Amino acid sequence: MEQDLERAEERAEQSDCKIVELEEELRVVGNNLKSLEVSEEKANQREEEYKNQIKTLTTRLKEATQREETYEGQVKILSAQLKEAMASREHVEDKIHSLSQKLTQAEARAEFAERSVQKLQKEVDRLEDITWGPCSLPIPALDDLINEIEKYNDIGDNIDDAVVELIPGVQPTPKQLENAVKNRAQQQEAARREKERMEEAARREKERQEEEARRERERQEEEARRPPPPPPAESVPVETTEP
């Protein structure tokens, strides 16, 4: 009986030791489970943050795309306006050149006609003083004088028409015409420089936005590839039982 009792006590002690070991293992498992739950919660938070960042970046990308389309539209409008201005400039320059030639020719003809009229007038005055009276002017000389006067008037009308055609309502001088051509050239040059400046600004803005988007994508990809940090290991004391 005593031996059976001793064996029963030994088995009871062994059972108690196993129970203690199982309780310790259960406590360790519980701690590990809590640590995993905390890690899962942190991972869910990071996932939510990543989703919010992706939404924000998507919105910014859409805004950047819209701005890019707006800039492209403005550049197209400016390009069309520049083409129209260049075509108008060429047309105006050709017209000014043609009218300037006409004006120069008309002035030359007017100067020649004026000299001819003066010459004929002097000849008529001389003949009146020497041979004929005021009313006995030779018919050929009188006809020549009338023809020259009419030519002079016609040339003057042509000059006036050319001036009016150049600048309606204003009688410009050659210096004013030259200044008008220079001002037009300056305006065209300013328009060309403004177009180049807008194109350069749009190109730089597009490159900057693309660079920002690329860096943001690389940062997100790097964070996505980076494994989450392991939970801190907790030291668990192990109780030893003496046999």
Automatic annotation (TrEMBL):
Domain of life: Eukaryota
SUPFAM superfamilies (UniProt xref): Tropomyosin (SSF57997)
Keyword terms: Coiled coil
Stored InterPro entries: Tropomyosin (IPR000533)
Compositional bias per record (Basic and acidic residues), positions renumbered to this chain: 190-226
Record carries keyword Coiled coil: yes
Parts of the chain that traverse the membrane: none
Location of region: Disordered: 174-243
Pfam families associated with the record: Tropomyosin
Entry coiled-coil feature ranges: 5-130
PANTHER family listed in its UniProt record: TROPOMYOSIN
Family that this chain belongs to: Belongs to the tropomyosin family.
Designated name of the protein: Tropomyosin-2
Species whose genome carries this gene: Papilio xuthus
Lineage: Eukaryota, Metazoa, Ecdysozoa, Arthropoda, Hexapoda
